[in-house]
Structure formats: C-alpha cells, structure tokens
Specification:
This protein is of the alpha+beta class. Helix content is 30%, strand content 25%. It has two domains: 48 residues, Pemi-like Protein 1, Chain: D; 123 residues, GAF domain (Beta-Lactamase, 2-Layer Sandwich), CATH 3.30.450. The radius of gyration is 18 Å and the shape is elongated.
Length: 177
C-alpha cells in the first residue's frame, strides 16, 4: 500500500470524499460500487466487480465458447478482462479495456463487425483483429461487462453473434435474485 499524501475528514453523515485525481486514476465513475475491507487497522476500498467474482466460471465459459467457435473469447467487467481463451492469457488477462470498448459497453451496444480494423480490446494489444462480436452483460438493468468473440479473419457470422448474445444473457442471469 502506498501513501498518497491526501487527507480527508469524515463528515457528520460518515461520508468521505474520494479525490478526483484518485477516482480518475482508478477509473472510478459515479455509481461504481466499492468493496470495503479492514486489514491491520486500515480501511481499504476496492472497486467491486461482480463479474470478477465469477472469474473461474467465466473462464470455463470462455473456454467453451472458444472451443465451439474457434475464435478468441474475452469476458470482461466494465473495465478489465476477466476471462480469456484462444490467445496468450498472460498478455490479455486482467488488462484494462480501451476507452473505445468501455464506451461501447456502457452504451449497451451490440458490436458486430467484419472490418474491425482499429478496434482494440486492450491498449497494448499485439494482435490485429479483423472480426469482432461484442454483447454487453446486463443484470437488473445494470451493465456488468461484456462477452466478446474476436478473430484475425473475416469469418464472424450470425451464429457467432447469437452465441455471444446468449452467453451475455446467461451470465447476466447469474447476478439476479
């Protein structure tokens, strides 16, 4: 844990304001949930990701999708990759999404393109994608993340789109109740 040198007072309602610089650096937006931990007398706030809570399950799902389609599969929360299959995991797992992809997810857009030149999943992506299908994971009206199939060839079709949409709906249902 590193010190920031920033000190804040708790107000009479027990609230603490997280400085804008820290929110920007940590990519915390209005309405984002924070998880609270207590460790060795310290209170620790961590950005909460429900999708990351299911990372083992998501990894198995990504593996099944990749084996079924032959395409790279990524399952993300709103900010990072949570599960990856079909590419070198260490290069893509737990990496920040590009701002372009974050915006597509936040806008609840279906992205299907066989000319995905210029679309990157992570900032330091080394693979040039030619096809991509992305569908957001939505639960109780909230965007939780996305399911993405990607390929270096122009070979994505309606079946791939249907599989991604089905996977996103299924994962969204895991958060309900």
């Amino acid at each position: 844990m590193r010190a920031t040198g920033i000190v804040r007072r708790i107000d009479d309602l027990g609230r603490i304001m997280v400085p804008k610089e820290i929110r920007r650096t940590m990519r915390i937006k209005d309405g984002d949930p924070l998880e609270i931990f207590v460790e060795n007398g310290a209170i620790i706030y961590k950005k909460y990701s429900p999708v990351a809570e299911l990372k083992d399950f998501a990894q198995k799902y990504a593996e099944a999708l990749q084996k079924t389609t032959g395409h790279m599969c990524f399952i993300t929360d709103r900010d990072n990759t949570v599960a990856v299959n079909g590419v070198q995991r260490s290069s893509y797992l737990a990496k920040s999404l590009t701002p372009q992809l974050e915006e597509i997810i936040e806008n609840r857009e279906l992205l299907q393109s066989n000319s995905a030149a210029g679309i990157k999943i992570i900032n330091d992506q080394t693979i040039t994608l030619r096809s991509i299908v992305l569908y957001p994971i939505i639960s109780n009206g909230d965007v939780m993340g996305s399911v993405i199939l990607a390929s270096v060839a122009d070979d994505m079709g309606e079946t791939d789109s249907a599989l991604v949409k089905s996977a996103a709906f299924f994962l969204g249902k895991q958060f309900e109740d």
